[in-house]
Design goal:
eight-stranded antiparallel sheet, about 35% helix, elongated, alpha+beta, binds adenosine-5'-diphosphate, binds magnesium ion, two-stranded antiparallel sheet
């Protein structure tokens, strides 16, 4: 090879390397913020994520898979068939939910228990209209309740009592949020926030490259989203946040008494404790959702004890103060800069 050719080859090689470096260093960031909202499970969802393509089909697919497993509103879902004793076959979603429910029921002294469904129905929060069952009815239904009466062996459910029924409403939204975040992460998404009916799972940062900002509603007896106001807000990421309250879903009896939709599985009665709303931050939204529901049953002191036992769980409770206003109570481990 003569010198000229040699120099040309070297020059081309150098230019090639420089070109490649430039492509990688100056590579324009691909992707954009996608935002979707809609209605699922009779509530609204809002999802945002940074990605180079639209994942709305996959999101709807996740919703459908969760719905066909644990939604009592879908007559052909796994849970509906199991509740009617038409099948004993458990799918992967439900097997996971039952396994988590055993654990979550244990750590909440039975305050969270998806077998509460016969009681939820009896109090008119399931398929039936408002009802005020008497103590004898409640006592007989209570015998069907207890997640320890249910187990899964080789993909089949075993119920000690055929009348035992499951209600995953208290964790289905949280689980749905987690599943969507997992699906997005499998596809390489780092920054996302998934909210279904107020339960939130998030990772990474928002479009301003800051932590996600979460707001807690002021408890108010109205289901109207236009009446919402925020009592406090904080920034978080890489976790799940769920809020439970008895102030949006309740019945009012003729004498004016409010009956909330959260039932104490131990007594069988709707439970109104000193906690008006509980907001829980946990490593995932399934856990946060279950704990938030349980904390409504446990009341402030016992809920604080549960949070104290699990360092990766934090909570904010809204209680009523003596003058009729609201009091915000933080768990001990709640970061001081987020109050
Ligand atoms: P929301 O669905 O309003 O966000 P929750 O997550 O607290 O509220 O779920 C409450 C629902 O869970 C009730 O409507 C009922 O179907 C069911 N449920 C009621 N009490 C309990 C309980 N102690 N444990 C588990 N599920 C419950
Ligand atoms: Mg819940």
């Amino acid at each position: 090879m003569d010198d000229k050719k040699k120099y040309r080859a070297i020059l081309l090689a150098v230019l090639g390397v420089v070109g490649l470096v430039l492509v990688f260093v100056l590579r324009p960031e691909r992707g954009k913020w996608w935002r979707h909202s809609g209605v699922v499970w009779a509530t609204e969802y809002h999802i945002q994520y940074f990605a180079d393509r639209d994942y709305s089909d996959s999101i709807l697919e996740v919703f459908r898979r969760v719905e066909m497993s644990v939604s009592a509103f879908a007559p052909e879902s796994t849970v509906s068939k199991i509740n009617d004793n038409r099948s004993d076959s458990v799918d992967a979603v439900m097997a996971y939910m039952i396994e988590r429910s055993h654990e979550l029921s244990r750590i909440t002294a039975g305050a969270f228990d998806p077998t509460v469904r016969p009681l939820v129905n009896a109090w008119g929060f399931g398929d039936d209209d408002m009802a005020l069952p008497d103590t004898a009815q409640v006592d007989s239904l209570r015998r069907l309740v207890g997640i320890d009466k249910v187990k899964v062996v080789d993909g089949r459910i075993q119920k000690q009592n055929a009348g035992t029924q499951l209600d995953f409403s208290a964790i289905a939204k949280g689980f749905g949020c987690d599943e969507i975040v997992r699906m997005l992460q499998r596809n390489g998404v780092k920054d996302c926030l998934v909210e279904v009916g107020g339960e939130i799972a998030m990772s990474g940062h928002n479009s301003e490259e800051k932590l996600w900002r979460i707001s807690i509603d002021t408890p108010a007896y109205s289901a109207d989203s236009a009446c919402r106001s925020s009592i406090m807000a904080f920034s978080m990421t890489d976790c799940g946040v769920a809020t439970s309250g008895n102030y949006r879903n309740y019945h009012t009896a003729a004498d004016g008494t409010h009956y909330g939709h959260i039932i104490d599985p131990v007594t069988g009665f709707p439970r109104q404790t000193d906690v008006l709303s509980a907001t829980v931050c946990a490593p995932n939204c399934t856990t946060a959702d279950a704990l938030a529901t349980a904390f409504m049953v446990l009341g402030l002191e016992r809920s604080q004890a549960v949070v104290d036992a699990y360092p990766d769980v934090k909570a904010v409770f809204i209680t009523a103060d003596k003058s009729g206003g609201f009091k915000t109570v933080f768990s001990k481990n709640w970061p001081a800069d987020k109050k």
